Amino acid sequence: MATSYNVWLGLAAGSMALVAEGLETSEFDLSSTTLEYDTTYYWRVDSINEYGTTLGETWSFTTLAFLAPNDQVTIKRLVAAANDTIFFEDE
Question: What CA–CA distance (Å, rounded) separates 21 from 24?
Fold first, then answer.
């Protein structure tokens, strides 16, 4: 059982940066991170316990591409992104 989590994020699976360390839950607030439009990002969550670190699977998501400045959508909380699908809360 994990006691903490590290979150990695980057533009390439092999060069992700540590963006959150020692989280008590596997939830990470992405709202403080600026993401570029129409860009693929890679992310991973590692689980940590008294026996060491277990590397999570590397996932990817692609941000939306806007064709015009007025075509904007605000997503307040990203819940999961996998298999070319983004699941989010819209409240």
Answer: 9
